Every structure is written in structure tokens, then in C-alpha cells.
Amino acid sequence: MIASWLLDLTAAALMEDPEMSKFGVGVSDSGEGRWTIKAGIDEGVPTPVLTTALYERFSSRGDADFSNKLLSAMRYEFGGHLEKPVGK
């Protein structure tokens, strides 16, 4: 059996709030990914996974589906990343 800390965090978030009612429309970004991507560009180092993750956060802001709430919950459990108010 392979353990996954992120899956454990997701399971904990689902047990606490099965409807993910405290999470909103999209997945916020805290800025670390943007900073890392910009540094990669400056240094000529590709960061395709980080760039894709950031773009997925951007695309999530248009739909209020359960998977986006789950991503927000996982980010909150992982690092205490709170969602930013819509439009900010």
C-alpha cells in the first residue's frame, strides 16, 4: 500500500465538511507559484508542472464545481492557504 499525505489531508477535509461548504468558486493562488515561474523564466529553467498548476487555478475561477472546492480544501489543509475574496 502506498500512503499519500495529500490524500490524507483531502480525506480529513472531507470528513470535516463533506459538502465543502466553506470553500467557494475557485482555487486561489498565494503567489509562490507565480514567483517561482518568473524566476524560472529569468534563469531559463522550464517549470511546466508549476505553470500548469497555476493556469488550472486560473481556469477554476469560472466554475463552482466540487472538484475546485476539493482543491481549495487540500491547499488549506496542506499549508493553511485561505481563499481570496472573489475579485481580489
Quickly give the structural class.
mainly alpha
Q: Name the helicity range.
A: 55-70%
Largest sheet: none
Total strand segments: 0
Classify the beta-strand content into a percent band: under 5%
Q: Count of DSSP helices?
A: 4
**On the 0-100 scale, what is the average pLDDT?**
82
Distance between the termini: 42 Å
Query: Rounded to an integer, what's the Rg over CA atoms?
Result: 14 Å
- What coarse outline follows from CA principal-axis ratios? globular
Order of helices and strands: HHHH
Give a description of the structure.
- By secondary structure, the chain is mostly helical.
- α1 (5-16) crosses α4 (66-79) and α2 (32-43) packs antiparallel against α3.
- The chain has helices at 5-16, 32-43, 48-60, 66-79.
- The protein contains 4 helices and no strands.
- The model has no long low-confidence stretch (mean pLDDT 82).
- It starts with a helix and ends in a 9-residue tail after the last helix.
- The longest helix has 14 residues, at 66-79.
Write a brief structural summary.
With 88 residues, the protein is mainly alpha-helical.
What tags apply to this protein structure?
88 residues, 4 helices, mainly alpha
Please specify the SSE layout and strand pairing.
Blueprint: H1 5-16, H2 32-43, H3 48-60, H4 66-79
Helix pairs in contact: 1-4, 2-3
